[in-house]
């Protein structure tokens, strides 16, 4: 029996050595240099997967939106590659309907989350497309990049935002989008109503007047189901002029932060 056991043990040892998959030791080293945020903003499932891609020369260190410039350069120096050029991306909210401008038709007294409110007549909000303001997005952000302001709108701090997309997943109204910070033109509305009907529900909603289409470069903006839609493949044509005649300020030109951290409640649109 002892001889048989020895044969099996030898066979297993040889098989283990033969079948063992070699892994580049630099993967562990690079993984240790990464922030361990596992936010997936780089396009990979986590920091370990990103490290494997870096060692395999399938991406560049600058693709990590969490590390600062020095940390990015450290990884590049270790691998002997160029750091690359990062495009700063941030989360933007496709709604500006805080409690000061959006009609609240009923008072919501349920569980205080957007997900719960969305399941109960949109939390009493007149616009069924609008932000519910209960902060599921802020709770989901591991980087403290989202702060709720006085009128119930989530304010994304560009310097802290890593474009990980957790807020996109958390929002039951699908109001967040991830976009380059230098894409300045944004329609802050998703309502498919038009004219007086939508204006009765929110003072900053797109009313489908089409003036932005007329004022923008040809092909940059078009109307779709009563909503102004920007073709971001032509964003180089964008100009603040497209926002100049919007009667509700639904289309805006952004420089940095989207909403003020403090916004007056004067003139509340609550019923």
Pick out its properties.
271 residues; alpha+beta; 3-methyladenine DNA Glycosylase II, Chain A, domain 3; Alpha-Beta Plaits; 2 domains; two-stranded antiparallel sheet; two-stranded antiparallel ribbon; disordered C terminus
Care to describe what's here?
The chain is of the alpha+beta class and 271 residues long. The chain has two domains: 2-79, 3-methyladenine DNA Glycosylase II, Chain A, domain 3 (Orthogonal Bundle); 89-253, Alpha-Beta Plaits, CATH 3.30.70.20. 26% of the residues lie in helices and 11% in strands. The chain contains nine helices and eight strands. A hairpin with a 2-residue loop joins strand 6 and strand 7.
Supply the number of helical segments: 9
**Strand residue percentage:** 5-15%
| Multimeric organization | single chain
CATH topology of the largest domain: Alpha-Beta Plaits
User: What is the percent of helical residues?
Assistant: 25-40%
Distance between the termini: 87 Å
Q: Structural class given helices, strands, pairing?
A: alpha+beta
Gyration radius, in Å:
25 Å
The side-by-side strand order for the widest beta sheet comes to: 1-4
Top-tier CATH class of the largest domain: Alpha Beta
Q: Can you tell me the CATH architecture of the largest domain?
A: 2-Layer Sandwich
How many β-strand stretches? 8
Low-confidence stretches: 264-271
The major β-sheet equals: 2 strands, antiparallel
Order of helices and strands: HHHHEHHEEHEEHHEEE
In one word, what is the shape? Answer: globular
